[in-house]
Amino acid sequence: MPWSTLLHADLPIVETRYCGVLTAAELADAVKANMALALQHDRMRLLADCTGITGGHSVVDLYYLA
């Protein structure tokens, strides 16, 4: 899986780290899964580490998901 999610016990955030090449569908699935996790655990802050993504997405794709 090109992304992993961490639910912080000491901070009220859901952290997601992306790595490698993600298809638009994989990126959308990750966002949906993260939102579901945040709602399930009443977390309103999401942190995304996108430094490991290598290509495949336009600024418009990322803006739409944000």
What would your notes on this structure say?
By secondary structure, this protein is α+β, with helices and mostly antiparallel strands. The protein is built from two helices and three strands, in the order E-E-H-E-H. It has helices at 24-40, 59-65, and strands at 3-7, 13-20, 45-53. A three-stranded mixed beta sheet has the order 1-2-3, covered by helices on one side. A hairpin with a 5-residue loop joins strand 1 (3-7) and strand 2 (13-20). The longest helix has 17 residues, at 24-40. It is globular and about 35 Å long. The two termini are 20 Å apart. The mean pLDDT is 86.
Oligomeric state: single chain
- Helix and strand succession? EEHEH
Approximately what portion of the residues adopt beta-strand conformation?
A: 25-35%
Largest sheet: 3 strands, mixed
Which structural class fits the helix and strand makeup? alpha+beta
Q: How are the strands of the largest sheet arranged?
A: 1-2-3
